[in-house]
Amino acid sequence: MPSKPSKKLETFDNPFPARDYRIHMEIPEFTCLCPKTGQPDFARLILDFIPDKKCVELKSLKLYIWSFRNEGVFHEAVTNQILDDLVAVMKPRYMRLTAKFYVRGGIFTNVIVEHRKKGWLPDPPVFLDAIDEQSNITGN
């Protein structure tokens, strides 16, 4: 039986809950409808998150994203709704959703929304490429 769109997001236990690590997903085929004209809107979604206890199951995410295909919704509203729905089921330490909508009427629209778990702070970044390879040689 073929898959059908669904608003049900499923999760699984984070296999490394003691470690902060980033999950990066790109969803290049998001579609919804313009609530004013009914014409299709197309976007590329970029999801970055640091899980806490749960991760999102990919098939359920695909069916969830698909569920917007026939919905009339503004770019800002759908981007915030997707973030809110993912945060509700996963409760991540951090999540950022970037929605890059393709040109409509000569205008590209990008909507970026974030969630940060109360009290969570990221570890400071380590920039290994910033270390000068010749730093231990005197006279340079």
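Second entry:
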Amino acid sequence: MPLRLSPKVLLIDPVRMLPSLLLPLVGVLFVGGFSPRSFLWAALGIAGTVVFAVVRWATFSYQIAGDRLEIKRSLISRSVRTIPLERIRGVDVSTPPMHRLLGLAVLKLDTGASGGSEQEGELDGVTLAEAERLKAVLLRARAQERRQPVTDAPPQPQENERVIMRVPRTWLLYGPLSGAYLLTPFALAGGAIGLAFQWGDQLGFGRDAAWDAGQWLWDHPYLLLIAVVLLVVAMPVVGGVMYAVFNWNFTLRERDGYLVAERGLINRRSVSLESRRVRGYEIADALAERWAGVVRVWAIVTGLGDSQARGQLLPDVPRAVAHQVTGAAIGPFNAELRKHPPVARNRRLFRAIAPWAALAALALTAALLTAATAWWVLAVVALILAGIGVPLGLDRYKSLGHGYDGIRLSVRSGSLRRSQAVFERRAVVGWRIRQTWFQRRAGVMTLVAGVGAGEGGYSAVDVSETQAVAFPAEVTPDWLAPFVRP
């Protein structure tokens, strides 16, 4: 029979609609001069929001009917979304703060039909028990590929569960190394400044006052410098806190043919990935992470939407642990990466040094002609950056590589963010060779392995012409046999 969301969600919907109503409500109060009539109209607006939430809840239902999940909406026009259980490739259960207080959860289904970050089905406001029941029923039905109809009966307890990795809380200290959360203090400061200028009049101190405060701070550069230094000092602290909030108690499990990743402190999230659709993994690290010997890991999964968020297998962990976990959960890569030709090193050195060297030459010329101090400063800075470009270019070349161990392929590139993709040979659906004008002059090219998973293709950058032909012939010899003369 059709089921509804928990009535408790009616306490959440009006609160979520409040930000979009805040400006109209404030406008009504100001236009009405805060008269009783203006408060009455504001109250009617809030009441209308509550009525809308109730009607939307009453006209929404879902049920598992046979071998499909049906989601029905009939607020204005009636719509029925049917999701075959065999198409469900992942289930995402999350508990945002307000949901957690009320014992509710958000359940999202990923079928790969959208091809992007949007899930095809979402149940926002089921109880935690119902979310776990639905998750078990849907994943069990998908894993066993049942031919008979699936009922709403509670699933039998499953024993096939193995904990692959529990990330120790002490490893959360690696969080600021990734750099993803380091700009949080500046983002908060920018948001506060934007709020002051946009809502200054409504907040009571006026937009002009906010502008005058900014002008006064600009006229006192030492205070501005102190503020910037404080924000920089706060970067690792705030970034580490944000990282811990999102990755608290990160646990990776294998359960009934699925890889299940759970994480989060305020919003606890559980993501299930069907193991048989996992084609490989991607290991990434930034410069600071590389110096500390830690990496992050994502799964390469066919038909997975929002793979950067939903496909995460591990947060920052030691490299040896990452290889151990990926080897146990997906499979190891047992081969050395092959080096790219020396001309690839020259190209990286040129791109890392030449722009700054050219800027330094222009600045020196201007400094000699004008004797302006600013040009001398710019020339020195450009020369320093050109010098830094030498180790950066060499590191970028050192990071290049590709390989094949008979089962899996691997390609690696990047320096500021180095990424190594490892994927199965059966995932390769085609090859593509790209060559820019500069690559053609240098005698190198980019070989792209088309993969029906993850990003859709992974590139071996600046390989030689011999490697561009030999590597596909080694991996997929049958594909090239018709084009090779005996």
